[in-house]
Every structure is written in C-alpha cells, then in structure tokens.
Write a structure and sequence with these properties.
Strand order of the largest sheet: 2-1-3-4
Radius of gyration: 13 Å
Structural class: alpha+beta
Order of helices and strands: HHEHEHEEH
Number of strands: 4
Amino acid sequence: MSEQLSLSHLNPVTNLHSREEFKNFLNSEENYFVYFTATWCKFCSIAKPLVVKYLTELQNRSVPFTFLLLDADASRDIVNHLKIRGFPTTLLIRNNEVEEICVGAGEEDITHFFNTSYKKIA
C-alpha cells in the first residue's frame, strides 16, 4: 500500500506552511496530532508507519483529533515557531498548547507518547 493511501483514512492536513496559517487553523476546542517529517530523513520513514498505526487505533476508538502531516522543509516557519529541533517530531496540541512531544523514531518513545496522549484526550 502506498504511503498516501495508508494516510488517506486519517485525512491529514498538509497545506499549512506559515506560522500565521498554523495559528489561524488551530481551534482551542480540538485536539491535534502534528507529525513533522522530511523527505530526506531516514528516521522519519521508519517512524511514520508506527505513527499511522497509533493514529488509526485512536480513530477506531472514536477519539476526536485532527492530524497535521507537515513537511519540515515546506513548513520551516512553523518548525521555527514551535522550536522543533529534530525529526521526526510528533506533537499533541490541546487548547492551543503543546501537551506532549516525541522526538525520534524509537518505538518505545512513540508508544509512550501515544499512550500518554490517549489518557489526556480520551
């Protein structure tokens, strides 16, 4: 299955590039998972299937969230705004604040991130 097909059921938002677009998009009533990736990043391609797996599980449990899949190069202004320093980075944003953050592709770290995030938004 291609990456786009595997992500299509999550309806990812991919068209935000500036911090103003990002700020205007966020709604304090919603939960957001933001995944920063880069085409040149080996670890991003390792982590993405695991991130998609956990997001799919949350979606299947009817946990409300919006998924933002942002390319680090195309969204450099947002990366700078959020002070993202490594890739991949996954964020949980609630009430317009970063609640949880996971940097890297380690399976234990990603699992912990989603377990902790689930407890906060379920």
